[in-house]
Inverse folding.
């Protein structure tokens, strides 16, 4: 294809300068063929052009090969880039084939990913990815627009060193998607059984891998989270300049002059017993008219973390804290996240206070935001707060919180948000970092109390910013798509239940449907199906409401220690309501409001934060899967009650009821007959018997394998080769209609990640 150029070039053998001009003005790869066409060269002139290009390369004027040239020291217009960093949510890349020398280091190129509907959220670039991109000069540097993501990204691989009989090293990957071991050509001092990071030892696939870092014992305490951190590219070491700046910020005096003094209020923080940080606390008191006055006090992180500083840039890169059973990877350095910003009992702390006026029906009638100084009366664990309430030992200020919550709950029930109270797994470790138990997290009224106060403050923050026509980072949860509703409708039909797509779809519709189901097993299946039909929540500057919470305006305000989205909302409130504090330190950025960059375009950072949240949730889920597999590795051979969570042509995926952890049931173990895969209906059907395996079925299966390194499980029937023992078809009854109509699936195993991510996420 002839390159698109700005000018028509003279015909005939070009001069050196004309070649350089053509390369500079071409929007496509400029190779020998394109040059010949542009200058109308034929026959011997092409030979002369080849010699000219060779001479120019030897003189250092151009670089490349016959298929694409570029100015020496420059970047080809179309080239392969390798992502080396995610900076403030944007990928930074270098040319993949750059030959570095002392005088010419590889240029760092900011990659501009597609935005809005054009973007495939699941294909967000990560460190190590390779892309074919179109580049252009911008200011003193380059930017790139991806054209295609290439294979071979994420060149670094984590795995365990294995040695064969000849002593040759092999890398057994910890990613369960990679099935085969990879040869190691350079062990780098690593020994058999050690967890290592390796990268290709050359361009050829035959070059093998070389070990670049030895991480130690793969089954040691904290190894599972370390695997997830490296696999998902989560930054976990703070740069020295960010730590130094955080330490300077931590020494800032909290001035009482421009802060509301709330130290006289018995404000309490109610958190998990093992919480690593405390960024919210609550207080309420009757107002004498049947309602309540309430305060939700949130750590004033914006006072300590100013836009544009080293700490801020690192926080933007991380997007959020990541919580594992054995560690937390914080968004902010520990001096801030666990010390100065954390609302600790008995210590004066800078806070952003949300004052709420709640009427007798539980509606928020008024709100205001101030910068305050607070002294937390007590930090109480959920279980202890609930015990005091239940045993009549609670102090008046704690009882006031429960009474105020009774009103908030009344309003919540009237709103009727989506009520999918599905169990959450909790990994409990002992003092040595080993698994003590894996249990379902108990759901107490104390959790609901805090959650509803947080939701109220989040709504107030969104509405307060809207009142000032100020920028808002909304927390958005859109209604289910037509495609998912159609799939849900087909699935419900297998239970002889109807879903009319002609009506307005609301959370109340789903709640009524679930309320009418008496059989608990059937209810669990349909609840799971309803959850699968939901869209994924995300951050954005344009309001689309929160379907799950049945709210028109919603933002995240209550967790700025561990979510950058909340910090942006705090900064917007500082700007909108004149809450700026005087410049406290000449070494720190001046403003605590929004930066000009964010004020002009919140969409860019919002999308990056949504991606970072998904990355964190995948890493947390992977780690839980590894812990579950480690827990089950001592139970291989035991029989478990399982539920089918996915169907593929090669077999079933099933999860242990009450414990979790998806495992494969190979199709070869299902029985002697041949099973056909119905892709549209997502089911396996026996050719002779018509026997069917589909989503939601409950089966007794034997655990055949449990791999802690990958988190992978494998199941088999109790009597291999003789078919699977069913506990029930659907909801405790045999379902013959399901064979005719097919089963529901959302297309991917697992739940939409975060619609219940309402006010808190510890």
């Amino acid at each position: 294809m002839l390159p698109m150029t700005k000018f028509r070039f003279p015909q005939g053998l070009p001069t050196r300068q004309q070649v350089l001009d053509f390369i500079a003005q071409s929007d496509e790869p400029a190779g020998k063929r394109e040059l010949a066409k542009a200058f109308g060269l034929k026959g011997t002139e092409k030979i002369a052009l080849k010699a000219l290009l060779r001479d120019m390369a030897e003189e250092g004027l151009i670089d490349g090969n016959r298929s694409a040239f570029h100015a020496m020291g420059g970047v080809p217009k179309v080239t392969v880039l390798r992502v080396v960093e995610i900076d403030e949510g944007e990928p930074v890349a270098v040319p993949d084939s750059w030959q570095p020398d002392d005088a010419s280091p590889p240029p760092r190129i900011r990659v501009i990913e597609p935005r809005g509907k054009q973007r495939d959220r699941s294909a967000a670039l990560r460190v190590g990815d390779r892309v074919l991109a179109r580049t252009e000069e911008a200011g003193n540097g380059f930017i790139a627009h991806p054209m295609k993501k290439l294979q071979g990204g994420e060149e670094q691989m984590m795995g365990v060193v294995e040695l064969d009989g000849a002593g040759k090293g092999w890398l057994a990957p910890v990613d369960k998607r990679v099935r085969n071991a990879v040869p190691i050509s350079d062990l780098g001092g690593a020994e058999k059984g050690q967890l290592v990071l390796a990268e290709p030892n050359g361009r050829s696939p035959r070059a093998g891998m070389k070990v670049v870092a030895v991480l130690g014992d793969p089954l040691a305490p904290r190894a599972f989270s370390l695997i997830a951190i490296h696999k998902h590219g989560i930054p976990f070491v703070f740069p020295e300049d960010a730590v130094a700046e955080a330490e300077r910020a931590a020494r800032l005096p909290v001035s009482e002059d421009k802060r509301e003094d709330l130290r006289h209020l018995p404000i309490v923080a109610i958190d998990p017993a093992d919480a690593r940080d405390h960024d919210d606390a609550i207080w309420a008191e009757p107002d004498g008219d049947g309602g309540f006055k309430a305060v939700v006090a949130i750590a004033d992180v914006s006072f300590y973390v100013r836009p544009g500083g080293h700490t801020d840039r690192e926080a933007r890169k991380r997007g959020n804290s990541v919580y594992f059973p054995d560690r937390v990877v914080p968004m902010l350095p520990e001096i801030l996240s666990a010390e100065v910003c954390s609302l600790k009992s008995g210590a004066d702390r800078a806070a952003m206070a949300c004052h709420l006026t709640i009427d007798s029906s539980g509606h928020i009638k008024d709100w205001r935001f101030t910068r305050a100084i607070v002294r937390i009366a007590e930090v109480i664990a959920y279980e202890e707060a609930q015990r005091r309430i239940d045993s009549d030992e609670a102090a008046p200020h704690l009882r006031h919180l429960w009474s105020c919550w009774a009103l908030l709950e009344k309003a919540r029930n009237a709103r009727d948000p989506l009520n999918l109270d599905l169990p959450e797994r909790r990994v409990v470790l002992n003092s040595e970092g080993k698994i003590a138990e894996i249990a379902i997290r108990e759901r107490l009224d104390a959790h609901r109390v805090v959650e509803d106060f947080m939701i109220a403050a989040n709504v107030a923050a969104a509405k307060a910013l809207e009142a000032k026509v100020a920028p808002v980072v909304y927390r958005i949860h859109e209604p289910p798509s037509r495609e998912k509703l159609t799939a849900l409708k087909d699935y419900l039909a297998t239970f002889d239940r109807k879903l009319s797509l002609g009506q307005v779809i609301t959370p109340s519709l789903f709640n009524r449907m679930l309320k009418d189901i008496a059989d608990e097993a059937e209810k669990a299946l349909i609840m799971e199906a309803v959850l699968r039909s939901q869209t994924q929540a995300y951050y954005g500057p344009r309001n689309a409401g929160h379907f799950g919470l049945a709210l028109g305006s919603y933002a995240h305000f209550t967790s700025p220690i561990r979510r950058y989205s909340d910090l942006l909302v705090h900064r917007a409130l500082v700007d909108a309501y004149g809450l700026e504090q005087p410049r406290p330190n000449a070494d720190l950025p001046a403003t605590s409001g929004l930066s000009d960059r964010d004020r002009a375009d919140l969409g860019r950072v919002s999308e990056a934060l949504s991606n970072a949240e998904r990355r964190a949730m995948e890493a947390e889920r992977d780690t839980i899967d590894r812990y579950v597999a480690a827990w089950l590795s001592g139970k291989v051979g035991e029989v478990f009650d399982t539920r089918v969570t996915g169907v593929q042509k090669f077999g079933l995926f099933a999860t242990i009821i009450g414990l979790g952890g998806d495992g494969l049931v190979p199709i070869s173990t299902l029985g002697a007959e041949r099973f056909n895969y119905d892709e549209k209906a997502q089911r396996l059907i026996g050719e002779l018997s018509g026997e069917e395996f589909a989503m939601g079925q409950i089966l007794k299966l034997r655990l055949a394998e449990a791999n802690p390194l990958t988190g992978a499980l494998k199941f088999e029937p109790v009597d291999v080769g003789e078919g699977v023992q069913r506990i029930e078809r659907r909801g405790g009854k045999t379902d013959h209609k399901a064979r005719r109509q097919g089963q529901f699936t959302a297309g991917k195993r697992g739940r939409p990640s975060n619609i219940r991510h309402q006010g808190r996420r510890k």
